[in-house]
Amino acid sequence: MSLSTAQLLRGLTGLTRRLPVQRAQIHSKPPREELRTMDVAVGLTSCFLCFLLPSGWVLSHLESYKKWE
Predict the structure, then answer these.
(1) Where are the transmembrane segments (predicted)?
(2) CA nearest to 46, candidates 57, 34, 54, 58
């Protein structure tokens, strides 16, 4: 590595050390209303239908995908 490249990298890293870092102001509060059993059931069912059902179908038909027709 040449001397000018080393000086350039040193200058860039020195610049980033002096920049202020903004931090997110995240504060958690308790929920306004509790989740009901039906809400949880609908959420879990939709996750099952959207993610697990298609992947299960692909895995169950994997042998037919391997065949050359």
Answers:
(1) 40-59
(2) 54
On whether residue 40 sits in a domain, the answer given is yes
Which structural domain range is residue 57 located in? 36-62
- Say which residues have a Cβ less than 8 Å from residue 29's Cβ, sequence separation at least 6: none
Chain segment 10-42, per-residue pLDDT in tens: 776 665 666 677 777 787 888 889 999 999 999
Task: Give the global pTM.
Answer: 0.46
**Helix runs in 1-69, H state only:** 3-18, 37-47, 53-60, 62-66
Residue 21 carries which side chain, given as an amino acid letter?
V
**Does 54 fall in a domain?**
yes
Domain count within the chain: 1
Tell me, what's the pLDDT at 16?
Answer: 60
